[in-house]
Amino acid sequence: MALDLAALEMGVKVTLDALPWKDDCDVIELPWRQEKIQDVRSRMSRRGEKDGKLVFAVMKCDGTIRPHPPIQRALVLVTEALLCQGYEVCSANLCLIVRLTADSGC
């Protein structure tokens, strides 16, 4: 999607600033909220710090189709890099996510 976080942030901000929900009723109204970005940045991990850090969920398989070996390696590398930077990484369970979404009426 982007080469770095700043480019990704800019792309999402430009997209949301265009107010796409006004043209397409299937798009959820979600305006850009700079305070949320600042909140996330304040939670970014610092070496040796345990409180307030971001947690990443990684889904290695959706239970139906296994990713190709290069994708599996990439997931391992990203997980290791996040752990080395002090972030918490947990496994995402698609079946649980689908069940929670169905229970919430989505």
Protein described:
- By secondary structure, the chain is mainly α.
- The chain has four helices and two strands.
- 45% of the residues lie in helices and 8% in strands.
- The relative contact order is 0.11.
- The protein has a two-stranded parallel sheet with strand order 1-2.
List the helices and strands and how they pair.
Blueprint: H1 5-17, H2 34-42, E1 55-58, H3 69-84, E2 88-91, H4 94-103
Parallel strand pairs: 1-2
Number of helices: 4
Mean of residue pLDDT?
A: 80
SSE order? HHEHEH
Question: Globular, elongated, flat, extended or rod-shaped: what is the shape?
Answer: extended
Q: Can you tell me the residue ranges where pLDDT is under 50 for at least 5 consecutive residues?
A: none
Tally of domains: 2
Strand arrangement within the widest β-sheet reads 1-2
> Ends: how far apart?
26 Å
Structural class: mainly alpha
Name the beta content range.
5-15%
Q: Summary?
A:
The protein is mainly alpha-helical and 106 residues long. The chain has helices at 5-17, 34-42, 69-84, 94-103; strands at residues 55-58, 88-91.
